[in-house]
Amino acid sequence: MARVPPPVALAVSILALSTSAILVRWSEAPSVVVAFYRVLFTLLLLAPVALVRHRADFRALSVRDAGVAAVTGVALAIHFAAWFESLNWTSVAASVTLVQTQPVFVAIGAYLLLDERVTVRTVGGITLALAGAAVMSVSDLLSGTTLAGTAPYGNALALLGGLMAACYVLAGRSLRQRIALLPYVSVVYGSCALVLLVLVFAGGTPLTGYPAREWLLFVAMAVGPGVFGHTVINWALAHVESSVVSVSLLGEPVGATLLAFLLLAEIPGPTTVLGGLVVLTGIGLTARTR
């Protein structure tokens, strides 16, 4: 990874992340189970390498940093649980676009927690993004599709996922300046998997008994969006500013919507497209001022 230019790494990660919503839609397993196995299998792929090659980094990890990384994993778990569930209630285009409002929340969090100045352009971008989200919600509600009546609930879950993703990016940008990639993601993914496992048990959802097709989808989510998606994003956070990463993540809705059109025959209505463009414009304006 040290030899890979960050823009190339970000492009690879966005391509990998764009497949996530499609893989989730193809799966018939409960969303929390899908999220759990995606994170668990990603952890199982990376942790052995981390333990072999980064023992000294694990020993040097402070209690404070380990605790913050564990809390970051909790935020990631909520992100996954909320976003995966939103895909059962709203369209791929709306869900993926709304979950990518995270740069807006990054800007707000930076102001409240890091005492960074928020400009008029930032406020304008936040307002524009939220207006676009409202347009998308109304569009889905009036679309007449099978998801129309439940779209506001799904959109709210996607927004919650975006908020938790912002917490994940902000914490990652801070911790990755002093923690090696694999030890960091091992702690984050481990904490995330434990939280998702608790949610599985709390809901009485079975962990086994799924057909081979589902297990293949779980592995595909771990290799694609897990290893080449989120893990590469965490690598990039040590090399480029969080705002650059946030803006790059805006490519995911475009890729996911295109894949949904090609593979799911899910055609977004004109108002949904318009709302999505407004959201992306607002997010881009917000992130650019960062």
UniProtKB/TrEMBL annotation:
GO terms for cellular component: membrane
Keywords of the record: Membrane, Transmembrane, Transmembrane helix
InterPro entries the record matches: EamA_dom, EmrE-like
All copies of domain EamA, residue ranges: 11-137, 154-286
Membrane spanning stretches: 31-51, 63-84, 90-114, 126-147, 153-171, 183-203, 215-237, 244-265, 271-287
Name recorded for this polypeptide: EamA domain-containing protein
Source taxonomy: Archaea, Methanobacteriati, Methanobacteriota, Stenosarchaea group, Halobacteria
